[in-house]
Every structure is written in C-alpha cells, then in structure tokens.
Write a structure and sequence with these properties.
By secondary structure, the chain is α/β, with parallel strands linked by helices. 39% of the residues lie in helices and 19% in strands. The relative contact order is 0.10.
Length: 597
C-alpha cells in the first residue's frame, strides 16, 4: 500500500509536482530558486532531488495529494474555509441567540458585513501560508536543518512566516539583544544556502497600542512586503517601547500577536498590507519547532492528535509541555478553523514537517505504529481460519520519516520521527438514545455526507430497537457537523459486537480535521470495532489505512458487494476481537439492510 500510494501520487500529480518544484520560477511558489550562477549544477540537481524525495516520502494518498495541490493553487482549503464561514453566518442569522460575539469559536461570524462579504466572489488571490515559531536553535545542526526545511516549504508553494522566539536564553541586555540578532541572521543565511530566500526583520514589527500600553500589535506591512518579494520573513521577538528601550518579548505574547496579524490578513476582499494589492493570506498550518518532538503526558504517553475543544482539560492536566500546549491553543483560537497545529522537534528531519504540511495524518514512531505481539498472533489465527487479513506495512498509516540506515553507535543520535497534530476542533456530544438527539439534524447530516436519501423510518426504527437490546452509541461533533453511530450487535456465543454503522462528515466541515476528531473519539469509545463498506466506496482507502484487517465478501450476482473491516486495540487489558467474533460479525453485518434508498 505504501509503494502503491507513492506510484499513484507520482502518476496523478506528477505534472503538478513538476510545476511546484521547477528549476526556476513557478506559478504557485512564493519564492524562486537562487540563480543558477550562485551554485554549481551538481549542487542544484542534488537539492532538487532531495526535495522531490522529501515530498514523496510523505506517502500522500491520491486524495491528500489533490487536496494539497488544490490548496497551493487556491482552491480546496479556501473553498472549505469559505463554506464553513457561510454556514456559521447562516446559523447565526437563523438562531441569533445561539452565540454572542464573545462566545464565537474560530471561523464563526455573526450576520454582519463580513458575512455578506464571505458570500461574494473572491477578488483577491490567496497565498498559502504557514506560521512557524522556532523556540531555540542551540542544538548542533539545528540552524542548518531548519534553514533547509524553510527553503523546501518555499519550494512547494507555501509562504512561511517565521518568528524566532526567545526561549529564555536571551535577556534584554546588550548581550541578549546581540544573541537574538545573530540567530535571526544565521537562520536567514541557512535558508539562502539551501536555495531559498529570507529577509531578517529585527525591529519595527511589534509595537504597543498608543491607547492601551498592554495591547501588543503587529504591523503586517513588513511581513507582506517580504512575502511579495518571494522572501521568508524571519522576525525577531524584539520591540522598542515609547522610551526607545528594547524589550525581548515572551514567546506566547509574540506568537499570539503574529497569529492575530496573519488572521486579520485573510480577507477575500482586501489585500494584505505590504503586498501591493497582490494577495491576502490563507493560513494552513501553525508549526512550533522546539526541544520536544510533540506533547507528552503522564507516564510519557505521547499525544499524536489533540482536539483542543474537547481534549484540552484532560491533556493539560498532565502535559509535560504546558507552555507549548497553551501557546498552540491561544494561536489556533485566533486562526481560521481550517488551520492545523504541528508541534515537532527543531532536530526533526525536514521531511517530517513536510509530511504534516502535505497530509493531515499524525506521524508516530515505528514502535508506536507496530502492532503488539498479541494482535499479531490474532491476525495469524484469522488467516488460519480462512479469513484474508489485511495488515498495513509497519510504517503505515503512521509513516516513519527521517530514520536512516546507519550503524548505530553511542555517538549517533536518531532524528525524531513523530510530531503532535492539533486542531481547535469541536465539542463532542455523546448520546445513548435517539430521544436526546436532534433527529432531523442527524438525518440531514447523514444525507449530506453520503449524498443519498436515507430510508429514515426503517433506519431510525432499527436504532430504537437496538437501544433496548445491545445498545447504541451516537457521537456528535460540533453543531451536527459530524457524527459517528455505533451499534452493539448480538452475536452467537459472545458479548455484543461493536459495529460502526455510520461515519458522517458535512462537506462544509471538510478541511477542519473533523474526520480525525471523530475517529479518535470512536477509538476511545470502542477499543475494537467492525464495519462494512461498499466495494466501490471512495472512502475505502481511508479505511484501509486505519484498519487492522479486512475481507471482501464473495461476489453474488445482483447483490451489493461489501468489504468488511475491523480494528483492534493494542492497549493491554482492553477488549480485542477473537477470530470467532470476527466471523460472527461478518455474518451479522451481511444481514443488515441498506440504510439508503
């Protein structure tokens, strides 16, 4: 599957990839390569080869490849963000009491001039942007790796806006001031050596509101001018106050101010200051490169994905990096809802962060992605029982990036191979009965997601019958923007079997991380589960990536062709499905009547 994904990406997106990674100017990229005269031909070819390999090593699915390419050309992400805003404006108009201005989540807007503006045809091109916060470059080689990463981000058509945060090693003394300036210029030089363009911005970006000295403001004109010229702005956390005294800003304060300035430059009708009327921004990622390779909790538990709206309190209670978590929460609350956050190590291989830019899947170490011994033995038993078992490669879907085949010695330090993906996300509702749900909204969600008409009477009657039998779990995300319906089916000689009956996401919520949020909630609710999908369902590739096994039902003339999936828990003590339960579950699933007409 991994090799197949690369081949499909190259086949279907090869022309676009060539346009994104040309030898000179390109139509999407925010920066051009350094002139051929400034580097040898061999060095230039080697740089191009490394970039192509880094992009291909992300192993994007065809859907992920198309989405990223459309985002760079100003289609996919922009459309998702616009649809989300239009929906929120419509809800605010229909139910004006449901939110007050102070209660709005990112992307939610009341009926106002901006709501009407969002419905109009866009007049200003959007520039795909990533906000990058770097918390220290002290480790050996960190500056060179980060420079290479920023140059590669430029080359794939994304405009990085970089803030070099003060990690506490620099103070407001003359020595601290010089240390920050030195790091900013060293990073800019590293970007230039890798064929990119960078512009250090040491002063003039931050200033205090003259009417409120506690309100830190960012002048976006210097940032916009740098992007317009194809440069990566690298901003130092320095500000001169009214007495011309230089202050070193704290990371959270400076990062929030930059995020606010970028969010205010995302209008579809007004160009960003400093761009000469050429573009506004489309902020897709918020990347924090620091000392940790992600967020960890009690017992060194690694958090691959965090839905801040639902999981923040639980993660914050035992987070080993509370300042990082709070910074990401603050900034993602400011940025549009389609933006995702990445927390990675400054020592990470550049291809690891490119993975987070191109796809939306978390990355884990090989050890975390690998099935435990018990699950492996169960898979062997399934095959012996005659059920074909699909097993992803050890590095899929959580792809190992940056691991090299080198002799391991005491002096070799392996690059981090994981990061934490964060979304502002949605609040989660859980229901055990249909009576507590908004059934008309749930029906509308299912029909919009599947683009088919639900046989509502038959379907909801089946759910009501199961409520008093095995049980029903209904997980609703946000304002019925996504939902998971799990039924507990009776099987012979075993306790009820968790069956994933429906997995639905509104088209307007695509690009907001809804699918990952719902999947995480499903895995939390049901450690092991089964489900079926039509043989020609375009979502099957997504299911293959996340399942422990699958089997295709024998072809029957005139009958629906099904693929049966299951996933297993790898946590000791949690329920796993036995071979007999899987066989019984397939038999039960085949008897469930189709839900749509």
């Amino acid at each position: 599957m991994q090799a197949h994904g690369v081949r499909v990406f190259v086949k279907r997106a090869g022309v676009q990839l060539h346009r994104l990674i040309p030898s000179g100017q390109n139509r999407f990229s925010t920066a051009s390569s350094a002139s051929p005269e400034s580097e040898t031909g061999a060095h230039h070819k080697q740089r191009e080869r490394e970039l192509i390999l880094s992009v291909l090593s992300t192993v994007p699915s065809p859907r992920e490849a198309r989405k990223f390419l459309n985002s760079v050309s100003g289609n996919e992400t922009m459309r998702s963000q616009r649809e989300f805003e239009e929906r929120q404006a419509r809800l605010a108009t229909e139910e004006p009491t449901m939110r007050t201005p102070g209660q709005l989540v990112p992307g939610e807007i009341l009926h106002s001039e901006r709501a009407a503006e969002a419905r109009e045809t866009e007049a200003v091109p959007r520039r795909l942007t990533a906000s990058v916060f770097i918390d220290g470059l002290e480790s050996p080689g960190a500056c060179e790796r980060t420079g290479k990463l920023l140059a590669q981000i430029q080359r794939i058509g994304v405009s990085p806006v970089v803030l070099l945060a003060n990690n506490g090693s620099a103070d407001a003394t003359c020595g601290g001031y010089r240390s920050i300036i030195r790091q900013v210029h060293q990073l800019a030089d590293a970007v230039e050596r890798e064929g990119g363009k960078a512009r250090p911005i040491n002063e003039g970006v931050f200033f205090n509101n003259p009417y409120d000295r506690t309100d830190l403001t960012v002048d976006p004109e210097l940032i916009g001018a740098a992007i317009a010229q194809g440069h990566t702005p690298i901003i130092s956390p320095l500000m001169a106050d009214a007495e011309l005294q230089v202050k070193v800003l704290k990371p959270r304060v400076a990062a929030a101010a930059v995020a606010r300035a970028l969010a205010q430059s995302t209008s579809t009708q007004h160009a960003m200051a400093g761009s000469g009327g050429a573009f506004s921004l489309l902020v897709a990622r918020l990347i924090l490169l620091g000392g940790a390779d992600g967020l960890t909790g009690e017992g060194n538990v690694f958090h691959r994905f965090v839905n801040l709206e639902e999981d923040y309190a639980e993660v914050a209670a035992a987070c080993a990096q509370p300042d990082v978590l709070e910074l990401m929460r603050t900034c993602l609350a400011i940025l549009p809802p389609t933006a995702a956050g990445i927390v990675a190590s400054v020592d990470s291989d550049p291809s690891l962060v490119l993975k987070g830019l191109i796809s939306e899947r978390p990355v884990a170490t090989q050890q975390r992605a690998r099935r435990n011994q018990g699950v492996a033995q169960q898979g062997q038993a399934v095959r012996r029982a005659g059920i074909p078992s699909y097993r992803p490669l050890p590095s899929y879907p959580f792809v190992d990036i940056g691991v090299r085949d080198v002799a391991k010695t005491a002096d070799v330090v392996e690059a981090p191979t994981q990061f934490t993906l964060l979304r502002h996300g949605f609040q989660i509702q859980r229901h055990k009965k249909l009576d507590t749900c908004n059934v008309p909204r749930l029906r509308s969600l299912l029909e919009s997601s599947f683009k088919r008409t639900l046989d509502a009477g038959q379907y909801f009657e089946r759910l009501r019958q199961l409520q008093s039998a095995g049980g029903v779990e209904i997980i609703v995300a946000g304002d019925y923007q996504g939902a998971v319906i799990v039924t507990h089916e009776a099987v012979a000689g075993a306790e009820s079997l968790p069956y994933l009956d429906k997995f639905a996401v509104l088209p307007s919520a695509q690009g907001t991380g809804m699918a990952d949020i719902l999947w995480a909630q499903l895995r939390r609710t049901c450690p092991s589960c089964m489900w079926r999908s039509r043989n020609d369902n375009g979502v099957n590739k997504w299911y293959f990536d996340r399942s422990s096994g699958h089997v295709r039902a024998p072809a029957q003339p005139g009958a629906t062709q099904w693929v049966f999936f299951w996933y297993q828990s790898s946590v000791p003590g949690q329920r796993t499905l036995t071979v007999d339960e899987i066989q019984s579950g397939i038999a039960v699933s085949q008897k469930i009547a189709p839900s749509f007409v």
